[in-house]
């Protein structure tokens, strides 16, 4: 299914508050209102598992929960135009900074700065527990899509439905040992760069320039402006950002072991579990980042499922480039999940 994208829609919600990551948040569960037009984008924080999670919230407190997960090198502002659409539809929208981003912090200096896939998924479950959210619709792209996949696959009782950009992204260290064709390996150049000490030091010294390059190559037709980039780039000043980023890519290649406490979860993920909850997968027609073909993962979705390809030059950061289409997918899967099941 191919959906056209209105190139003028990016100004539709220009009044949405966009709070930078700079500055520590005050006390747990405190709220800061942005001095902009309603609906207000709220920043909050809460102790959840290993983290003090900083997150944006919008919509009625008693609304059906929706959790939106960003990727690398992006941040919560990828959903700044998605959130008000969902809030207007009565949803309680939660958009957390992932570990290593924005004002999210580790509760202990002794906790490993681990970027493996199971750790990020466990963070989402801990956040839901901390906010007393039993079930939620979960959507994401890039790292956030993989995390949404994992929560849906391993904790279907917590995931009401799911929206995932680029489909099924669950992987394993063992599967990642298989070499790819040269063109595919070339597209993962930064993964191999990060495997070296030179790469770690290079990213530490040039994280904004690195992010700008990824934005341009992953979304070659997205004409983002400097203010848009600067809002998200502030999130990369997190003291754990480089370590989490490097560990994420090194773990994929089997260069770091991960934490033993996640071994059981990783063993399940290595089996490429099916996703049973209602799901919509999305892809842009101009995604310049490595991504699988929709036909390659369609069979992993066993519940009600639909794939949508967006036309009009939509790249990797699909929620920010095509917010109306992403929000529509969230509202559609939420409706599917609420429909009575037929025998």
UniProtKB/TrEMBL annotation:
Keywords in alphabetical order: Signal
Signal peptide start and end residues: 1-27
Coiled-coil ranges per UniProt: none
Boundaries of every AB hydrolase-1 domain copy: 65-194
SUPFAM superfamilies with a match to the protein in the record: alpha/beta-Hydrolases
InterPro entries hit by this protein: AB_hydrolase_1, AB_hydrolase_fold, AB_hydrolase_sf, Epox_hydrolase-like, TAT_signal
Name recorded for this polypeptide: Pimeloyl-ACP methyl ester carboxylesterase
Organism of this sequence: Phenylobacterium koreense
